[in-house]
Amino acid sequence: MTVDRSLVYLQSLLKELCSLPQETEWVEFKQNNDDPVMIGEYISALANSAALLGKQSAYVVWGVEDASHAIIGTTFKPSIARHKQQELESWLLQKTAPKIHFRFFEFTPIGDLPVVLMEIQAAAHNPVQFDGVEFIRVGSYKKKLKEFPEKERALWRVFDKTPFERQMAANVSVGEVLTLLDYPAYFELTGMPLPENRTGILNALQADQLIKAMPGEQWGITNLGAILFAKKLQSFQHLGRKAVRLILYRGNSRVETIREIEGNKGYAVGFEGLIDYLKTMLPSNEEIGKAFRKEVPMYPELAIRELVANAIIHQDFSLSGTGPMIELFDNRLEITNPGVPLVDTQRFLDSPPQSRNEVLASFMRRINVCEERGSGVDKVISQIEAYQLPAPIFEKTEQHTRVVLFTYKDFKDMESEDRVRACYQHCCLKYVNRVPMNNTSLRERFRIEEGNSAMASRVIKQAVEAKLIRLYDPNANRKAYRYVPYWV
Questions:
Q1: Closest CA to 268 of 332, 181, 193, 344
Q2: Same domain, yes or no, for 442 and 354?
Q3: N or C, which end of the chain is more exposed by having fewer CB within 10 Å?
Q4: CA–CA separation, 214 vs 172, rounded Å?
Q5: Of 234, 251, 270, which residue is a domain's last?
Q6: What share of the chain is helix, strand, coil (3-state, %, to 5)?
Q7: Is residue 1 part of a domain?
Q8: Max CA-CA distance within the chain?
Q9: For the chain, what is the mean pLDDT?
Q10: What is the C-alpha to C-alpha distance for residues 174 and 181, in angstroms, rounded to an integer?
C-alpha cells in the first residue's frame, strides 16, 4: 500500500476532482463498491481514456456520492483487501497488461469520513487490458474498447505521437523531485554550474524536459528524467525492471551463477560505475596474436561501452518485466536488450542507427556516453580486429536483440562460420571506410603469413559462396581482385 503523498496534496486533489461538474472519462466516483473485477476493468478503461484525453493520470475515488460529489465516506480498505488468497493490489497488477503504475491512498479529508483515492497511470505504448480485455470510457460508462473502433484508432494515434521519454513516470512534490533524482549528476554531466537555489535547479531540469510543471504545485518526472537520473529506478514502479543486470557464470553455460548484480541507478548516473565494475570481472590476455605482447583486457573497452550503450538506448520500453542484461561466460560476453532491431542485423555496421528512443539516444550522446551517430558498430568491429578476436555475432530473438563477443582464438581454432563471419564484417568495415578489401587486408585481419595467402583465399571463396561478399570488378586481373559486401 502506497502512502507517500502528503495529506495536503491529497486533500487538494480530492477537492479538485469533486469540483468537476460530473463524472468524466478519466474520473470515477464510488461509495463502497469494492468488487475486484470491477476495479480491474476500471483500471483498463480509465488508463486508456486518460491517454486518449491527454491526461497523465486517471482516478477512482471511493467515499464520494456519485451525483452530488459530496464526501460521504467509505468502508473500502484496499490495504487489507484480499482476493483469491492474494493481496488485492498484487492480484490487480497480475491481471493487468501491459503493467502500468497504479496506487491506492487511504486518508480522511474531513471529520471521520474515510476516502480512498486510486491514481492510475495513463496508457502508454499499448491499450491497457484487464484479464485479456481492453476497456474504455464512453461518457460515464465503461465499455469494451473493441466495440468502439473509432476510439481504438484514435488511441493508437496518440501512442504513435507520444514518445516514451515524454510520458510521465511520477507526479510528485518539489521536495520529492530533488529526492528522487540525482540532480547534481545532471549538472556535472552536462557541464553546467549547479544553480544556487531550488528554482534554478527546477528550471534547468524542465528545460531539458526531465520534469514538467503540473497543476496543484506538483511536478511530473518524465520517463526521460527517471530513466537517466533516478537515484533508484525501483522508486518508479514501471521502470524498476529496466535496470541493467550483470551476471557472471562459471564455465560456458548458465548452469552455475557466480555473481548477479542488478543496477538501481538511472542510466546516465550509473553508466560509468557499471562499465568500471564490468571491467573488474573481465579476463585479460597476455598475448593476442602479434598485435600485443603485454597483458591487455580480453575485450576492448570502447567496444563494450558502445554495445552496452546501444543496448540501453535501443531497447523497447513497452516490453514489461525485462531490461538490458550483460552475461559473462568463460568464452564469451553476451549483451541483450528487449526489442527486436529496427534494421537487419547484417546491416548494423553500415546503417545509420534507428532508435525507438531518439530523445534518450540524443541525450546519451550529448553527455558522451556513446559515440556519434553512425560511428558505433564500425568502431566496435575495428576494435575487435585490432584485438584479434573472433567476429561478434549480432542476432535477433523473438523479442530481444543480442550481441555476442568471443575470447581470443587462433585462426586454426576458428570454425568455418567464424572465419566467414569475420570476412564479411571485415569487408563491410573496409567498404564504409572507402578502402577495398582484398586478400592482403584479410590476411592482416587474421594475421596470416604472406606465404599462406591461399588460406585467406579459401575464406574469401566461402564468403562469396555464402553470398555475403562479391567481386567488385569480375574483369579485373586476379591479383587486383577486391571485394564488396553483397548489398553494394
A1: 181
A2: no
A3: C
A4: 9
A5: 234
A6: 40, 25, 40
A7: no
A8: 96
A9: 90
A10: 11
Please check the confidence at residue 6 and state whether its pLDDT lies above 80. no
* Same structural domain, 179 and 316: no
Cell numbers at 94, concatenated: 497480475
The CATH number covering residue 55 comes to 3.30.950
Residue tagged 482516478 (cell numbers): 59
Asked whether residue 2 is domain-assigned, the answer is no
Angle (deg, nearest 10), helices 416-432 and 376-386: 130
Structural domain tally of the chain? 4
pLDDT, tens digit (0-9, with 9 covering 90-100), for 435-467: 989 999 999 999 999 999 999 999 999 999 999
- Grid coordinates representing 115 are 476516502
193 shares a domain with 149: no
Residue 153 gets which letter from DSSP? H
- Distance, C-alpha 450 to centroid of its chain: 47
Which residue stretches of 124-236 are H helix?
A: 149-161, 174-180, 183-190, 198-207, 223-229
How many contiguous H segments (helices) and E segments (strands) does the chain have?
A: 15, 23
The last residue of a domain, from among 358, 376, 408: 408
Which cell numbers hold the place of 488?
Answer: 553494394
Range of the domain at 125: 7-162
The alpha-carbon radius of gyration of the chain (Å, integer) is 28
CA distance 34 to 97: 21
What are the phi and psi torsion angles at 135 (to 5°)? -120, 165
Q: Which three cell numbers stand for residue 222?
A: 518524465
Its sign, for the CA torsion 221, 224, 228, 234, is positive
Confidence of residue 5 (pLDDT cuts 50, 70, 90): low
CATH number at residue 326: 3.30.565.60
